[in-house]
From TrEMBL:
It comes from the Bacteria. Gene3D superfamilies: Dihydrofolate Reductase, subunit A. Residues 2-180 form the Bacterial bifunctional deaminase-reductase C-terminal domain. This is Dihydrofolate reductase family protein. Pfam families: RibD_C (PF01872). Coiled coil: none annotated.
Amino acid sequence: MRKVISFMHISLDGFVAGPNKEMNWIKVDEEIFDHVGKRISEGDTALYGRVTYEMMENYWPTAGDKPTASKHDIEHSKWYKKVHKVVLSKTMKDTGLTNTTIISDNLADRINEIKQQPGKEILVFGSPAATHSLIQQNLIDGYWLFVNPIILGQGIPLFVDIKDKIKLQLLTTRQFAGGVTELNYIVDRQ
């Protein structure tokens, strides 16, 4: 069965965005882009909340076509165009969208159907509200976190309204030159 993995940049104190949704504190560089690019290039499904999807859709389809496009922009744009996108939204309609599925209700059933289909990891990119919904319905199978060396003090937390403990098993860690630490966990369902 396919796994749903939450891919998120996070502050040391557990926030995924500042109080005004700002993300200018996130440290990314070529080392991180190359590392992330290798893993996501193996994926075939990206899951987004509506806000993150609209942000991605406004940038990535043409990002690699610009004369000033970076290596990362070219590679990620190619990947974005071919990957199947799943969007959690109660307001979007599934009309005329290429390679995109909208889930507006029956979240657990629809995600479990996708998990049963052949394919690789289903990566949840950012999308805090969507991630919160997935966590509350026990649909996240792993966390791929990039802990940034900053304490925000306030903002949008990754974990909210957790009813039961979620036991995790650490798979890998990696320290990047810029101070970011990657933590790769799988949910321990035993």
